[in-house]
Amino acid sequence: MIDAFGRIQEAASEVLAGADSGVLTLRLDPDANSIAWLVWHLTRVQDDHVAKAFDGEQVWTSQGWAERFDLPFDVKSHGYGQSSTDVAQVQASADLLLGYLTAVQNQTVKYLESITDADLDRVVDERWNPPVTLGVRLVSVISDCLQHAGQAAFIRGVVDRK
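The chain above was modelled as a monomer; its predicted structure follows.
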C-alpha cells in the first residue's frame, strides 16, 4: 500500500516539475480539467478519504493548506461534482500543489505504517452494500488518484509536445 500511494506522488510530482501557471491552468477544451485542478483534486480525495478511514484529521485543515490555497469553496470540498467554473478557480503554483501532496503523502504513510493485514478487513463505511472495508477504500483511493495523475500527465505531454 505504501508503494502504491508513493506512485501517486511520483506521477503527480513528475507532472508538476517545472510547470508554470500557463501549463498548470491549461484546459484542452473549455470544460476540460486543468493539471492544477487534477492534482489538487486527487490530493484532496486522498486526504479526505484516508483521514476518514483512520478517524483522523485532514491535512487540508489541520496543517493550514486550505488557507494557503484560499479557494472559494467550502473547506470540505474535494472537487467531486464541481463545475467547469469551479475547475477554473483552482489556480495554484506547482510548489503549493507539491507541498500539499507531500504533506498528504506523509500523513498517509504514517497511517499505513500503523496497520496489519487484519486491519484491512475493518469496515470503514457502512453506507454501501456490502460495507466498505479499509482495504477496499485504500485500493479505491489509489485507483482514483492514479487515474487523475495519468490525466494530468496526458495534459503535460500535450503541452510538452507543442
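The chain has a mean pLDDT of 97.
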